Structure formats: structure tokens, C-alpha cells
Amino acid sequence: MPQMYKLKIIQIGNSLGVTLPKEMLAGMKVGKGATITATPSPDGFRLTPYDPDVEKQIEAGRAFMGEYRDTLRALAK
């Protein structure tokens, strides 16, 4: 079973945040200055390393769906 981490919400200036344990960062293969993404999931949010290729694919999919919106709506019926 994967390790579970209990994270405490703390005040950081005028914002709130959490600090991530180094074991968690090592498991995600990220470090200081890295960007991560928070994606909604059925049980909350999922944190993953940011991948610019995935973002490009998502944007391409959104553009495609926007261009063929009427066609996709008709196919969904």
C-alpha cells in the first residue's frame, strides 16, 4: 500500500499552503522550483508533476471540441 502523508495547512504570508515531505517530492521526481498540477479526482485532488506535453494535448483536444462542437453534440444523441 502506498505511503499516506498527513499535511497541515499553514499560513504563508497572506496565503495558506502546505509543505511537502522530501519523500513525497522524491516519489514524484520533483524538487525546488518544479511545477506540479492539481487535478480533480473522485476522492479530492491528485498532485502530479507538470508535463508541458500533456498540457499541449489537452489544449489541442479543447480546440478540436470547440471547432466540432455541433457535430460532437449530434453524435452524443
Can you put this structure into words, describing what you see?
By secondary structure, this protein is an alpha+beta fold. It has a single domain (10-76), classed as Pemi-like Protein 1, Chain: D (Ribbon). The chain has three helices and four strands; from the N terminus they run E-E-H-E-E-H-H. The chain has helices at residues 22-28, 52-67, 69-76; strands spanning 10-12, 15-17, 36-41, 44-49. The strands form two sheets. A two-stranded antiparallel sheet has the order 1-2. A hairpin with a 2-residue loop joins strand 1 and strand 2 (15-17). The termini are far apart. The relative contact order is 0.09.
Beta content: 15-25%
Q: From the helix content, strand content and strand pairing, which structural class follows?
A: alpha+beta
CATH hierarchy class name: Mainly Beta
Helix content: 40-55%
What is the β-strand count? Answer: 4
- If you average the pLDDT, what whole number results? 89
Q: How many structural domains in the coordinates?
A: 1
Head-to-tail CA distance between termini: 42 Å
Tell me the radius of gyration. Answer: 18 Å
Count up the helices.
3
The major sheet is characterized as: 2 strands, antiparallel
